[in-house]
Specification:
The protein is of the alpha+beta class and 441 residues long. It has four domains: 116 residues, Replication Protein E1, Chain: A, CATH 3.40.1310.20; 64 residues, no CATH class; 107 residues, no CATH class; 26 residues, no CATH class. It is 42% helix and 21% strand. It has 17 helices and 14 strands. The strands form four sheets. A five-stranded antiparallel beta sheet has the order 4-1-3-2-5, with helices on both faces. A hairpin with a 2-residue loop joins strand 11 and strand 12. Helix 6 crosses helix 9, helix 7 packs across helix 8 and helix 8 crosses helix 9. The N and C termini lie far apart (103 Å). This is CRESS-DNA virus Rep endonuclease domain-containing protein. Keywords: Covalent protein-DNA linkage, DNA replication, DNA-binding, Endonuclease, Hydrolase, Metal-binding, Nuclease, Nucleotide-binding, Nucleotidyltransferase, Transferase. GO terms for molecular function: DNA binding; endonuclease activity; hydrolase activity; metal ion binding; nucleotide binding; nucleotidyltransferase activity.
């Protein structure tokens, strides 16, 4: 197979037909006759394509300006694409021709070619179509071709699916804050005949919808967020000095906070100075605000305004995602020790560059570890005494081990025991012991 035939097989223009109309415009200077033009087309087709021309007709049409062009209608033995033939004619003969596949059948193309030329040329064994009528299959061919055109037009006009950016713009324009609000808007538009948004939330799933909501919020707040990041905590505090009180407070919080501090013997200036220094200089030694006291004494109340002024991080849990969001916080607010939060010692070891810790604490004794050595049982405790954290290793004698702990025997070749300490009992013993000491260090 020649290289040009291989090109014809590999060439894939949009359509392939068995009936073509070929037009060679402005051919007045070519010196070709109708028969010569037909022979060039036949040679090009035989060299470029695997299909064969069954019959053809060539005519010559004169222009008003004196020029001329050739028309050639041809019928193939099977459907074939024409690009390889056109390229062959251009490369071999310098002829540029146009192909058309708009005719439903060969009879229609034949009538178009011979309508203005009485000296047209026919192929050998060409049937006489001078007085023939259109084939009975013409209507069916036209209908089939029309249906194909409509389907193609419908495909081209198919509405483009809504992109995530389009949804983000809708969220920003409408001020939507949640997925529920977006679903409500999609339902409303669907009732009005606009289904784009409903199709998006239905087909893309909740993950994409939530990402669109998050992206829209980030784009909306990006400039304000950048401006806020470039401000210090003191600058943010000064901005709130000029704003009215929240929730119609009218200064009640300030008076109440002063009463709590005075009732506990803490000068207002000392407390305010400590908070200001922590906000100004950030986390560091002697610069974290720690409020210690029993329940319901106003600890959280004293630091609650920080949540209004700053973006705060509150009570990290002990799970895998305990620290999510801490890098965005400006103040670590109101830490309270519970069974689900991280240990206080671990909290003190945590580092947030430039951060500020302000928290309250009610529990004064934390059990960190317990273990046996011989007949003795040891408890490692961390506690607060006189407002300062301390760690102690307490030895529990074997005589009263059974009174305070529960023992599980482990039978086997190497017998042993597992001790489950009763934490509350140990804590009470430690508190009673500390209370008896007048000069505890």
């Amino acid at each position: 197979m020649s290289s040009s035939r291989t090109q014809a097989v590999q060439s894939k223009p949009p359509k392939q037909r068995s009936i073509y109309l070929i037009t060679y415009s402005q051919c007045g200077n070519s010196g070709l006759s109708r028969q010569a033009f037909a022979q060039i087309i036949l040679d090009a087709w035989n060299d470029s394509c695997l299909s064969r021309i069954i019959q053809w007709v060539v005519s010559e049409e004169m222009h008003q300006d004196g020029g001329k062009h050739f028309h050639m209608a041809l019928k193939l033995d099977k459907k074939t694409r024409w690009l390889a033939v056109r390229n062959f004619l251009d490369m071999r003969h310098g002829i540029k021709v146009n192909f058309s596949d708009k005719h439903d059948n060969y009879f229609s193309a034949y009538k178009y070619v011979v309508k203005d030329d009485a000296d047209y040329v026919l192929s050998d064994n060409h049937p006489d179509l001078t007085n023939a009528t259109a084939p009975r299959t013409t209507n069916a061919s036209q209908k089939r071709k029309g249906t194909a055109k409509k389907a193609g037009a419908a495909t081209k006009k198919k509405k483009k699916r809504m992109a995530v950016y389009d949804v983000v713009r809708i969220i920003q324009t409408k001020g939507i804050k949640s997925r529920l609000e977006l679903m409500a808007l999609a339902s409303k538009w669907q009732e009005q005949g606009k289904t784009d948004l409903a199709e998006f939330v239905s087909n893309r799933g909740p993950r994409v919808v939530n990402e669109a909501l998050e992206t829209a919020h980030e784009l909306t707040m990006a400039e304000k967020r950048l401006e806020r990041i470039n401000k210090t905590r003191i600058q943010l505090l000064q901005e709130h000095l000029t704003q009215p009180c929240r929730d119609n407070c009218e200064g009640i919080w300030l008076r109440s906070a002063a009463e709590i501090l005075e009732g506990n013997g803490i000068p207002v200036s000392i407390f305010a100075g400590a908070v200001y220094d922590a906000l100004l200089r950030g986390r560091g030694k002697y610069r974290n605000i720690y409020i210690y006291g029993p329940a319901n004494c106003g600890k959280t109340f004293l630091i609650s305004p920080l949540k209004t002024i700053y973006e705060c991080f509150v009570n990290p849990a002990s799970g895998s995602f305990a620290w999510v969001g801490v890098d965005q916080a400006e103040v670590w607010h109101n830490y309270k020790r519970t069974n689900t939060t991280i240990d206080y010692i671990d909290l003190l070891e945590a580092t947030i560059p430039g951060g500020c810790f302000v928290f309250s604490h009610e529990e004064s004794v934390l059990e960190r570890d317990k273990f046996c050595v011989g007949d003795s049982f040891y408890h490692e405790l961390s506690m607060l005494h006189q407002g300062l954290p301390r760690s102690y290793l307490i030895k529990q004698c074997g005589d009263d081990l059974n009174a305070m702990c529960h023992i599980d025997r482990h039978p086997g070749s190497s017998q042993g025991a597992k001790v489950h300490s009763i934490r509350e009992v140990i804590v009470e013993h430690v508190k009673e012991y500390l209370a008896k000491l007048e000069n505890f260090d």
